[in-house]
Each structure stands twice: as C-alpha cells, then as structure tokens.
Amino acid sequence: MAYDQIDDAFHYVSDAPPGERKALVHRVTGRVFLASFKSGYDERPAEAATDPDYLSIPHRQQLDPGRALVLEFVRSHCPAELARVEALFARPGGFRNVKDLLRRQQLLESWQVFEAQRIDALLRQWCVAQGLPL
Fold first, then answer.
1. What is the pLDDT of residues 95-116, one digit of tens each?
2. CA-CA distance, 115 to 60, in Å (whole number)?
3. Per-residue b or e along 11-44, where b marks 16 or more CB atoms closer than 10 Å to that residue's CB
C-alpha cells in the first residue's frame, strides 16, 4: 500500500471544510476513493457503506492536536514567548495572533515545517492503528 496515496487523500479531504469532501481507503487493496459533495463527485463504491474494509480517511481537524502542538513548538523554539502565546490563546483569533507573533520572530517557516512533520507522523500513526501496511 502506498502511503503517498493516503497522504494525498488526507490533503484532499483536509483542504476543504469538514464534511465537504470524503476519502476512503480499502484496507485490503489500498485503493483510494474520493468524493466531493459540493461538486457532486463521488467515486465511492456502494458496498463501502457496509464493508468494514473501507476506512474513512480523517480530516486534519480529527488528527490535529491544535493548541498543544503550538505550545510544544513555542517551548522548544522560543520559550521566552510561552506566557504571551498562552495569553493569545485566551482571546478570539488565537491561532492567527500566534502566527503573527511567529512571523515577527522570524519563526513562521520553522513552525510550518514542524507542524507538517507532526501532522505526517500523526497520519502515519493513524494508518498503523487502522492496520494499514505502509
């Protein structure tokens, strides 16, 4: 089974609001099926609704540790800003404000690499937990 196909499907699902797109992977064949409800596109087989070998690929929000991931990054890359970041999360627009702070600290690119690596690791863990050989 090619992890790249699962990763592509994960990004396909996650690049839209939750529920707008779906992707399934067949546990045995590794084949991926996509659907976009907004555009009326659906290649999922009919038996997918009842066959447990079809797994729904998660949306990023289902895997993303959110605030905890940001705090982990801040602790390791700019610990002096930890109290400020925690205060930013206490107000509306916390993630946006933290990204602005990281941009000012010239850490936004490092954050993006860190985040992508962690999300990839979480998706790989999901695959292993689902019994998908990579």
1. 999 999 999 999 999 999 999 9
2. 12
3. ebbbeeeeeebbbbbbbeeeebbbbbeeeeeeee
